[in-house]
Amino acid sequence: MTKTVIGVNDGVPNTKGFDYRQLTEEVQRSFNGETLADIKVQRDQCAVRLEELEATGVKLYEDRLNGVINIDTFKMLSEKVEIEKSEVMAEHGHLSCVISAEEFRIAEIHNIIPKLREFLTLEDVTRDTLAALIDHIVVSESKGRSQNRTHEVRIVYRFGA
User: What's the domain range around 139?
Assistant: First the structure.
C-alpha cells in the first residue's frame, strides 16, 4: 500500500516539510506582532489603572467633604478622572475582545492540527476523509463542444488560508 500525499492549494502549504511548531507560533501572534500574553498584560494594567482611578475619585470626594479642595477644583479634577476612566474602560473592553477572538482562533487551530496530522499521513482515502477536508467544489460552465468540452474545477478546503 502506498501513502497518499495531499498537495493542498488555495494558499495552504504542501505537506512536505510542514512545520507544526511554526504554525502554532504564527497563530499565537497578534495583529502587530504582540503575543497574546502581552495583550493580557496590557488588559490587566488597564484593570489596575481603573482601580486607581476609582480610588482617586473617592479620595477627591473625601477631600471635598473635608474642605481640603474647593468645589471648582473638585469638579475639574473629577471631570479629568472620569474622562480618563472612560478611555481606560474602552481600552480594557477592546483588549478583552481581542483576547477572546485570539483565544477562539487558537482553539480552532488546535482543533485543526490533529486533523491535519491525520490527513497528511493518509493511507486510504475515503469519502468521509474527503468530506472532512473539502468545504465545497466549484465547477465552471462548459467550455468547448462535445469531446473537446472542458470544465474548470476549483476545490476549496475547510482549513484554507
Answer: 20-157
